[in-house]
Amino acid sequence: MCVEIRKAVSVQEINNAVLNIFGKFVHVLPTSKDARILLKPNLNANMNALTGNTTDLRLIAAVLRFLKDTGYRNITIGEGTNSGYYRNDINVISRLKVDRLAHYFGVSIFDLNQDHSRFITFENGIRAGVAESCFETDCFINLPKIKTHFEIGMSVCLKNLMGCLVGQENKKKTHQDLAKNIINLNQQIQPHLHIIDGLIAMEGLGPTRGVPLNLGLVLGGTDPYLLDMVCARLAGFDYRDVRTLSVAESRGLIGPAHIHFLKNLDMDGLVRHFKKPKAHFPASFIHSPKRQKYFLAIRNTALFSWLASTQFFGHLLFLSGLRQDNFIQKEMMVNRLTFHADRCVPGCCKCSDYCPLGLKVPSALVGKNPDCIECLYCFLVCPERAIGFDGDLGFMSEQLRQYDNITRKITE
Ligand code: SF4
Ligand code: SF4
Predict the structure, then answer these.
(1) What is the pLDDT of residues 346-361, one digit of tens each?
(2) What's the N-to-C CA distance of the chain in angstroms?
(3) Same domain as 354, residue 246
(4) Residue 317 falls inside a structural domain
């Protein structure tokens, strides 16, 4: 059993952490440079990685950089974004600038919600479709985020595979008995490697309404149960309180060797005590395992689905806490990012540390560097607000409303 845990904050440190992880698990990489490699980040919502919600572009870039430098030619980033965005026709992959990152590295992007389905069996004999590409690939690399999850406790390697389900119709079939279904899915799809984004994690009311926490870690390994147990401990949780892990243990997927490994793993100075993902009433009332099936029966009716798709009722659901995401239709339009030299602190380098492409920021902004993918990470972390935004923030204004101050504070 083996888990690599690397401290990393800047782009350079993230690149080194990823190099180290591939060095340790080099045996999982295919020998043919034409082998199909699928990267599965967590891009479930349009909130960028600095909120703690989605996989950091710096981690995806580091993995792509390594794979391209090693000579792999057939790389795809695949994700089936969460049902609400899919239903509202919002392109999360594009909003998070993953398409532009993929273009920069010359790799493909694939929306798993549009893939052919392979039907597998979930709880109570329910059959739901999983993206065929997840089975067909030669090397599957899971790139989850560490975040709390109010229904199952934590979302890391195991939960991230739920994005492999095709479309809303299949995702919603598996929502009841969620923890058991996550394990069912993991018994069918087994990624070759997991590289975990523990850079900016999420605590509190995750997966979408929690608070970002600067953990500064990248983890790697091949055993998702062990990795999720390690992440639970990093968060200061008993792994048995994470519902997926408790189901896994009851099915014999976690055994004495896992527990022994965890007990003896030196995590001195790494453990943080995450705020627990406690949902407010009425979400906690409805999502209790005893009552959830009744709520899901109502939610899956045509009338409720129609109501939920209206802006007014959808916003009410968001305000009540019954819905975690706020589906804003308006796109962001960036004319340019501006640089106010008078506010910049010489020697700071924060913006460069957070640029996924490793551009020399802020100078890259002067004259609009063509390689810039407009991810806004530099804009979001600058402690002096020396980087400005010219354009229409669109959906991004909601992220700024919730997270602007906290993002700048935790990245100080
Ligand atoms: S983060 Fe802001 S203050 Fe720091 S170097 Fe960049 S522009 Fe200057
Ligand atoms: S310069 Fe800023 S906006 Fe452009 S890619 Fe780098 S961090 Fe993103």
Answers:
(1) 889 999 999 999 999 9
(2) 36
(3) no
(4) no
Task: Give the residue from 46, 158, 121 showing the smallest Cα distance to 397.
Answer: 46
The answer to whether residue 180 sits within a structural domain is yes
- H/E run at residue 146: strand 145-149
From ligand 2's centre to the CA of 149, what distance in Å?
A: 29
Mean pLDDT across 214-219: 97
- Alpha-carbon span 218 to 390, nearest angstrom: 33
Whether 246 and 346 share a structural domain: no
The confidence band for 206, taking pLDDT boundaries of 50, 70 and 90, is confident
What per-residue confidence (pLDDT) applies to 304? 66
* Residue located nearest, by CA, to atom 3 of ligand 1: 344
pLDDT bracket for residue 278 (50, 70, 90): confident
Which of 337, 343, 344, 411 for a ligand 1 pocket mutation test, highest count of atoms within 8 Å of Cβ? Answer: 344
- Nearest residue by C-alpha to atom 7 in ligand 2: 355
Other CB atoms within 10 Å distance of the CB of residue 400 = 15
pLDDT classification of 363: cutoffs 50, 70, 90: confident
Which residue among 361, 369, 381, 389 is best mutated to probe the pocket of ligand 2, counting the most ligand atoms within 8 A of its Cβ?
Answer: 361
Q: 184 CA to middle of ligand 2, Å?
A: 39
- Protein residues whose CB sits closer than 6 Å to any atom of ligand 1: 344-345, 348-351, 362, 382, 384, 386-387
- Higher-pLDDT residue of 82, 20: 20
Range of the domain at 378: 333-392
229 domain residue, yes or no: yes
For residue 112, how far is its CA from the centre of ligand 2 (angstroms)? 27
Per-residue tokens: 270:
């790494």
**Under a CB-based contact definition with an 8 Å cutoff, are residues 162 and 174 in contact?**
yes
What pLDDT, in 10s, does the model give residues 53-101? 999 999 999 999 999 999 999 999 999 988 788 878 899 999 999 999 9
**Which residues does 294 contact at the CB level (< 8 Å), separation at least 6?**
none
Helical H runs in 189-301?
Answer: 224-234, 243-250, 256-264, 283-286, 292-299
